[in-house]
Every structure is written in structure tokens, then in C-alpha cells.
Specification:
With 247 residues, the protein is mostly beta strands. It has a single domain, classed as outer membrane lipoprotein receptor (LolB), chain A, CATH 2.50.20. Helices cover 15% and strands 48% of the residues. The chain has three helices and 13 strands.
Length: 247
Amino acid sequence: MKQTIYSLLLTILMAATALAQSPPTGEEILRRVDANIGSDNKISTAEMIIHGRRGSRSIKSKSWIYGQEKSFTEYLAPAREAGTKMLKLEDQLWTYIPSTDRTIKISGHMLRQSVMGSDLSYEDMMEDPELLDLYQANVIEEVTFLDRPCWVLELTAKTEDISYHSRKIWVDKERYVSLKEERFARSGKLLKIFEVKEVRQIQNRWVPVNMVFKDALKNGEGTEFFIESIEFNADIPDALFTKASLR
């Protein structure tokens, strides 16, 4: 009888241990990736270096982001770009160009155009950063990438009206940061590649601070990003997210 009880307890202990050691699901991993970078709002300053066929150029900007619905960006340098502003309100986007003193609504096919000659489109900038809202996730392999143990997730869109039908992302197992991402069309054609070069801990979060974004349909070295500063859960006035702020 004692042997039977002992065997039963041992079986339960082994099952509990195996369950505790089992890898998280794709959904659990993606939820933690979203939680690591997400916040109610944030303020950041960044430098974007666009590597083109005729050389490279640098653009500096400051962004105010409120949840997933609102964002406001002002370009600070160089002089010819300074004063250009962009406003996102849910699924609508406007840009103000000081040289013409015009505010333009970006919609339809214009959303697929490049932002200031970079490898990002307006659609990329409009995208909801919480991937779990948009995709189903499955773990397809475990690899070492940039000397970090990673899960590789395959993401499939939950709806049809989305810029990228599927994605493949490399998630750092310890820091829950996406270190690399490939974005695909419904046909399976590779459209964009995103790769992180440096990660820092800021306000108890692991934040990519140096990244390269590459349009796979273009020649060139891509567009490099440097996050110079970022503040999570910052205090942002509601009045900033109005079309009046563009002027």
C-alpha cells in the first residue's frame, strides 16, 4: 500500500515538474513581448538614417504616443525636414508640410508609400504594436540568434484587412524582445525585414534602441534607427492629438 502511494506521489511530482518545465505557447510568448514594449503612452526621440543609392541621410524626430489609437510626430532635423508633423488618430493619418503650409490626409494607396524615402511605409507607422491583437502565434523552432537563445514564432493574421498576412519573429527567451522579424504577403513573398542591433534596459523594460528596417523589394542597406531617449507612461496633454497641433 505504501509503495502504491509512493508511486502515485512520484508520478504526480514528475508530471508537475514536466508541466513547469514545458515551453510557453506562442500566444504566451507574444503576450509577454507586447507587455514588455507596450504602455499607456510614451515619448521618444529618435534618429533615422536612410541608406540610399546616392549615400545616407539622417532625420531626427520626437514622438508622443497614446496607447494604440493616437500618435503625434514632429521632425526636428535636418532643416529641410524640420517642422514636418504627422498625426495618427485611430485609422486616420495626416501630415503637415511646412514648405507648402499644407495638411494632407494619407489614405488609400498613399499608405503604401515610403515615409521620407525610408524603408518604412505609412502603413508601417499606422500599425497596432500589440501583435497578439492581430495574429495567431505558433512556436516553430528554438535557435541561437545574435548569441541569444530564441524562440522562433510564426504569426498568421486573424483578419484579411492587414498589411502583412504572416510574420516570422525571433524572440529572446530571457528578455522577451523580438530580435528579428520577417514580414510576408499573402502569396508568401518576403516584403520587409527588421533586425535589432542593440537592446537596453529602460524603466525595467528591455527596449530595442538600435534597429535596421529593410524593404526586401528594394536594393540598398535599409533604414537604421537609434532611440536616443524614451519615457514610458509619460504625461501627455490630450490637446496635442488634434489637427490644430499640426500647425
